[in-house]
């Protein structure tokens, strides 16, 4: 999480504010306009609706929100699971790492996160911006939101590769470096998926409802992220390192088509949304 937080923070430094509400508040402040005041009851109700009720409603009624949240929550939970799985694997024979040595293995996850950030920048400049300029040249305001899914589509391939790599190199007891490298494609695919899903949902639902969609995603992610580490050691002891991690790999393959399906059928799905969406 430190690696992800640091990467996101550094990436956000040169960015400009895009949240409409904040932009308007800053403009009002600069112009000396007094902000509209709501009663305490209305403010509390608005907060509850925006921060909890609407996200939960979107999670259960919007296919885009549900399936992307399910997928990102699952991969996010595996990331948390690794905090228990990596010590379990490396502190046992044949590796017998110390706690300090085990901690260094997590650098491979950090490297995967950095590579995902670079991938996102390359895809944005070489693919999305090209599609955006083409759309603007034809009189549209934006490229279709589905063009935000390129990251997720390629990242979805890295997730099972990393999991199966980790599973069977660990099971075979090969050199620790080969095993550690296996975490890189997983971490790369994980962040590629999350970045893409976040941008897609915000593009689809706009600033306000997009924030609620991301809140729903966050609720799902952190719920699974809290649950998975609770049964990690028991699962690894019961199934063994190879099959326990492979089980996660097989589940990731089941979810792999989600961004691809949304890329192809997203416009039709958006038309049936209960919320205002970008068309």
Automatic annotation (TrEMBL):
GO CC annotation, single: plasma membrane
Organism (species): Pseudopithomyces chartarum
PANTHER family, alphabetized: MAJOR FACILITATOR SUPERFAMILY, POLYAMINE TRANSPORTER, PUTATIVE-RELATED
GO MF annotation terms: spermidine transmembrane transporter activity; spermine transmembrane transporter activity
InterPro entries: MFS_trans_sf
Main location: membrane
Compartments, record wording: Membrane
Keyword Membrane set for record: yes
Protein name (record): Polyamine transporter 4
Keyword set, alphabetical order: Membrane, Transmembrane, Transmembrane helix
Segments crossing the lipid bilayer: 64-90, 102-123, 149-168, 174-202, 214-235, 241-263
Topology of the protein relative to the lipid bilayer: Multi-pass membrane protein
């Amino acid at each position: 999480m430190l690696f992800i937080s640091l990467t996101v923070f550094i990436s956000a430094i040169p960015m400009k504010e895009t949240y409409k509400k904040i932009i308007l508040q800053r403009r009002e402040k600069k112009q000396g306009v007094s902000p509209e005041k709501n009663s305490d009851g209305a403010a509390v109700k608005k907060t509850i609706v925006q921060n909890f009720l609407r996200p939960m409603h979107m999670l259960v009624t919007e296919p885009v929100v549900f399936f992307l949240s399910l997928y990102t929550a699952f991969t996010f939970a595996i990331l948390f699971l690794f905090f228990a799985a990596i010590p379990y694997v490396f502190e046992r024979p044949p590796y017998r790492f110390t706690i300090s040595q085990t901690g260094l293995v997590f650098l491979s996850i950090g490297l995967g996160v950095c590579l995902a950030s670079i991938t996102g920048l390359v895809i944005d400049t070489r693919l999305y911006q090209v599609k955006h300029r083409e759309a603007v040249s034809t009189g549209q305001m934006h490229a279709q939101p589905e063009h935000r899914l390129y990251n997720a589509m390629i990242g979805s391939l890295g997730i099972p590769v990393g999991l199966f790599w980790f599973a069977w190199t660990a099971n075979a007891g090969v050199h620790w470096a080969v095993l550690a490298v296996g975490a890189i494609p997983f971490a790369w695919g994980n962040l590629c998926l999350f970045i893409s899903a976040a941008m897609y949902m915000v593009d689809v639902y706009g600033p306000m409802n997009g924030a609620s969609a991301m809140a729903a995603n966050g609720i799902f992610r952190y719920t699974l992220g809290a649950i998975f580490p609770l049964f990690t050691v028991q699962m690894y002891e019961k199934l063994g390192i190879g099959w326990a991690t492979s089980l996660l790999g097989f589940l990731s393959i089941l979810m792999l088509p989600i961004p691809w399906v949304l890329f192809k059928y997203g416009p039709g799905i958006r038309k049936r949304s209960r919320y205002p969406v970008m068309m």
